[in-house]
Amino acid sequence: MERLHISGGRALDGNISISGSKNACLPVLAASLLSADQIDISNLPELVDVSTMLRLIKELAGKCYELDGSALSIRAEEIQSKKAPYDLVRTMRASFLVLGPLLARCGYAEVSLPGGCAIGSRPVDQHLKGFEAMGAKIEVRDGYVIAETPEGLQGADIYFDKPTVGGTENIMMAASLASGTTNIFNAATEPEVKNLGDFLRAMGADISGHGSNQIKIKGVSHLKGCIHKVSADRIEAGTFMVAAAATRGQITMNGADPRELEAVTELLRESGAEVETSVDRIRVSMDARPRAVDIETAPFPGFPTDLQAQFMVLNAVAKGKAFVREQIFENRFMHVQELIRMGAKIELIGSNMAVVTGRKALKGAPVMATDLRASSSLVIGGLVADGETIIDRIYHIDRGYEAIEKKLSMLGASVRRIRK
Ligand code: EPZ
Fold first, then answer.
1. Which of 14, 101, 137, 407 is 20 to 30 Å from 222 at the Cα level?
2. pLDDT for residue 295
3. Are 107 and 148 in contact (CB under 8 A)?
4. Residue 306: what are its φ and ψ, rounded to 5°?
């Protein structure tokens, strides 16, 4: 088991490059199953979740890809298995995204139900409702979703009860090869959905409106190969933005797209940070103790749930009191008890509200990572705190942050990976 050892108290200072986005590339990898032609993907991040998706692709289409650093060539000539097994879906919920492509390409799919996870129950009812509207017969048997379309998928009007990123992506992929037109209403507007739509268009799909809450997809009979560059990870960039402000340092993030981080930029400025942006660069600096800022997570372009834990650390060392309301997931405060171990003053009110009273300093402590973004908040906590912090279970962080200790070291942090 690996741990991160952090000696805190240093301001982060310097430049880093933002890696390719985890949440943008996972649906793109799933979508590559829609074509038998070659797809070349660049800027693929080296992450555990990416390796898991490649293992799943191998399971379904054989070893149909070559990976060379961050460049991937993939050609899913033949689908050999239509079953996404429990072991792969259990470790990564995004595996459920192969349901749409399998169903569209083969008319049949068996995909393990993902089940709940640390941040909440995370049902897939909206995905299934969409496939059913498109004519799929769905049955849940022995923990698997078994979906069949004997007559092929038919375009349909689909109204999501709430915007869902994965649900929108799954339906977009399936609808690209369906007969007729699909309209998705109350679609998710996250940049990763826009990005998937652009990728599908490069494959020859007829999609419009992606990036807005109403998406139109006219099915085509065939999708072709294409080339695609994975966009920069807005959540990685946001994590470093918050780390710069919390440690009262300055970081320039190259490759980051400021249009995807406007809500974060606004709140960081409210907290006293200076944020400068250009087309593909963000610079954050902070030279005084931050001011506490209330946050409320919301679908894009609102403040992202994936940065709520990190921002809580900034509030934990800020002047004043802040209310943090989590509105996307029901159980996304697992980091709170760990931050309290580091001396943070945080009170939970019900399951989705926290009140954070800023302290002058945090104190290093042994803590345990519980999920991906919770672990990055503990890293920021460790960087800010006086003394030593040891973070256990850091496999969570390797799912979504490429070369985290290398990047932090380049910024002057004292961070080491240690084995028990
Ligand atoms: C994506 O998850 C991201 N994952 C998450 O990132 C991110 O937190 C989330 O979107 C919200 O932005 C990937 O892109 C791989 P949702 P997803 O479907 O698609 C409920 C990270 O740390 N819901 O938009 O699973 C659901 O329970 C991760 O990188 C239903 O009720 O999120 C949640 O409350 C974690 N029924 C809300 O909708 C459904 O059928 C939003 O979930 C689907 C979702």
1. 137
2. 98
3. yes
4. -70, -5
Q: Which residues contact 262 (CB under 8 A, 6 or more apart)?
A: 301
- d(CA 14, ligand 1 centre) in Å: 33
Q: What is the rounded distance in angstroms from the CA atom of residue 246 to the CA atom of residue 318? A: 8
Beta bridge partners of 30: none
**339 contacts 378 by C-beta, under 8 angstroms:** yes
Count of CA atoms in the C-beta half-sphere (13 A) of 236: 30
- Residue ranges and CATH numbers for the domains of the chain are 2-19+232-419 (3.65.10.10), 22-229 (3.65.10.10)
Positions marked active-site: 117
C-beta of 23 in contact with ligand 1 (< 6 A)? yes
Q: Is 94 in the pocket of ligand 1 (CB under 6 A)?
A: yes
Question: pLDDT per residue over 267-309, tens digit each?
Answer: 999 999 999 999 999 999 999 999 999 999 999 999 999 999 9
Q: Which two tokens stand for residue 358?
A: 């800023």
Distance between Cα 251 and ligand 1 center (Å): 29
Distance between Cα 123 and ligand 1 center (Å): 9
Residues 217 and 206: beta-carbon distance below 8 Å? yes
What is the phi-psi region of residue 403: left when phi exceeds 0, alpha when psi lies from -120 to 50, beta otherwise?
Answer: left
Measured from the CA of 126, which atom of ligand 1 is nearest? 40
Rounded to 5 degrees, what are φ and ψ at 374? -60, -40
Reported pTM? 0.98
